[in-house]
Design brief:
Elements (H helix, E strand, L loop, with lengths): L2 H14 L2 H8 L3 H15 L4 E3 L4 E3 L1 H19 L13 E7 L1 H18 L3 E7 L13 E6 L7 E8 L1 E5 L1 H7 L13 E4 L6 E6 L2 E6 L5 E2 L2 H9 L4 E5 H10 L3 E2 L5 E2 L2 E7 L7 H14 L8 H5 L3
Parallel strand pairs: 3-4, 3-5, 8-11, 8-12
Antiparallel strand pairs: 1-2, 5-15, 6-15, 7-12, 7-13, 9-10, 9-14
């Protein structure tokens, strides 16, 4: 971790007596401030702060470290900085993380277009359906699809991801077509391990409905469930971006046209607003503009009209 940034965090916490106040001043998440403080204590080899429910105070080791941190920041502030217009151009390595299905269906073409615009940037795209630790795994930007984002994280809204419920014509011919959400309880529903595994959320004309579902196949990756549905295993709820081509081709049938599955927010999550690399800022702006295009998040109703 950057020692200059860690020193800035420690000095701000010591001066304000609060990690929350320091986080607001520095434009960081509170979780990031906590990690920088933990790293400072590892470097110092001693506890630097007394933590109580009311405020923070310095230990003797903390007093000494505070003095040295201020000296470090003073020296760093006196160093001449070359003003170079090229420094503001996006360049260097950018490490991204997102779910596999989104990486394949949405982010890969977006990243390709971004790299064509900014050839000095290199992207390392990591796919995972678990929530990654940005600091420990050195991730610059995580793209997350959720309606339950940790409020301590720094995140930029990028779009809204709709879903649809679908199955193959063969499955529906054998087991019948559900005409109301409640009828899903009579079917084999392929569920995501993390997103609404046993409860699917729907909305119709302002009415909210939560439907218990279950089946003999669950997975932590939506593409696995999509593959199972294509083999006739059951009914699946899929992101529109994954299911749209299959519905359009007739391989899948979109169900319950009067009911809209709950949409999820799409967010870009990153560590700090301070000294944001030009490549990260450019990627956030690029994705926000690209995802504003309805072709990336088409409403499920538009797909149903094609049937």
């Amino acid at each position: 971790m950057d020692r200059i940034t860690a020193a800035q965090v420690f000095v701000n916490v010591a001066e304000r007596g609060s990690m929350t106040a320091a986080a607001e001043t520095l434009g960081m998440s509170r979780a990031m401030v906590t990690r920088y403080l933990a790293q400072m204590e590892r470097w110092a080899g001693a506890r630097l702060l007394h933590r109580t429910t009311r405020r923070l105070s310095l230990t003797p080791a903390g007093e000494e470290t505070l003095s040295r941190s201020r000296q470090m920041l003073e020296i760093a502030g006196q160093m001449p900085v070359a003003v170079d217009a090229q420094a503001e151009l996006p360049r260097g390595l950018l490490r991204l993380s997102c779910a596999q299905s989104m990486a394949q269906d949405v982010l890969a073409p977006a990243v390709t277009a971004f790299l064509q615009r900014y050839p000095a940037v290199t992207v390392d795209l990591q796919t995972s359906d678990r929530t990654v630790n940005l600091v420990e795994e050195r991730i610059d930007l995580a793209i997350r699809i959720t309606n339950d984002l940790d409020p301590n994280l720094i995140a930029r809204p990028l779009g809204s991801c709709g879903s649809l419920v679908c199955a193959t014509p063969a499955y529906l011919a054998a087991h019948g077509t559900p005409r109301a959400p409640e009828e899903l309880a009579l079917h084999n529903c392929l569920t995501h391990s993390y997103f609404g595994k046993s409860l699917w959320q729907f909305e119709r004309q302002g009415r909210q409905l939560a439907v218990p579902v279950g089946g003999n196949l669950s997975a932590n990756e939506s593409h696995v469930l999509l593959a199972g549905a294509l083999e006739g295993a059951g009914i699946t709820m899929q992101p529109v971006y994954s299911a749209a081509p299959l519905v359009a081709s007739g391989r899948l049938v979109a169900l319950l046209p009067e009911w809209k599955p709950q949409a999820l927010g799409v967010y870009g999550v990153y560590g700090s607003r301070r000294q944001m690399p030009a490549a990260l800022r450019a990627m956030l702006d690029f994705l926000a503009a690209r995802f504003a295009d309805a072709r990336y998040w088409p409403p499920a109703t538009a797909l149903k009209k094609k049937r």
